[in-house]
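GP-PDE domain-containing protein (Rhipicephalus microplus), 348 aa
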Amino acid sequence: MWAVSGVTGVEQHIGDSQENLAVSVYASYFNLVSQSAMVSAYGVAIILVLSCWAVRWCSIPRVDDNIVSEVIFGVKDGDDSQLPPVFGHRGCALDAPENTLAAFKEAKKNNADGIEFDLTFTRDNVAVIFHDDTLERTTNGEGPIDNITFDELRRLDASCKHPLAERFPKERVPTLEEGVEECLRLGMRLIIDVKRYDSRAVEVVDKLFRERPELYRRALVASFYHNFVYSLRRRNPGIVTALTWQPGVLTYEDVNKTRPYHESFFAHMLYTMADWLLDKALHSGFLPYMTGASVVMISDNMMSNKYVNAWYNRGVYVITWTTNNLAAKDFYRQSLRVGVITDTMHPA
């Protein structure tokens, strides 16, 4: 009996020990998990706080709405006495040779409110007003524009390929300074369009505004490249800027999405994904918040009351491009209250 009783006591003791060990292990595990969860929660919270602080610290405040309204409309914010403006796309490229001083004068004569033109550089770093990467489409030159000097560019005819070349003979590619001077002389507002990120453009545009303070209330700088807009406003936060966008801008050459940039399926899918991310970053308000852009310039196939109101509710102005139909222009200006960029001031 004693032997049996002793064995039973030992077994009971062992069982109790195992149970206590299991409870102890479970308790330790639970405490570890709980502490880890708390640490993880604190870690996530810290990361979120730091991320929000970093975004806020890196973001650039927008220019005052009264100044933005004056740049776009020519009146103070809240003054609805004026219709939204019409800007001549490259100086109204259907009415005169694009991006020439003759086009700017013709646009003024035809009652455009402002001029949109493109900034690029020659091989010797002269800032000029020209749209394409190459010379063939609009001049009697050949090859990339950044392969020739300004003196060589100046000898080219910028009107010879235009249907109205006889009316506007031997126009030259103007410098940025010449184009700005002419627009100011004509009393026009300006949209300076920078086609790609270029540190030279940041420096040149910043210098231009500092030397001509009237541009702060007369000119808007726009680009598809949000990193350019950010760099420019980080350097000179007083400049009113616009983010330009169209669906598929990174994937397709054209608004109708018929000419993809890349033949490779992998590259095409990669840029399609990049376009999706860009779309979300823009329409969530993240890019306007970070860059402090006051305006979005959006292709006219996106225009609707709902779309425009979504931007206005964020305090962001809208300009649409490129609209040549007279009825569409009237609808955008009168009903949607957005500015219009057009190739022609004549009915179309």
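Strands lie at 86-89, 114-121, 127-129, 189-194, 219-223, 241-245, 295-299, 317-321, 339-342. DSSP finds eleven helices and nine strands in the chain. ok done for today
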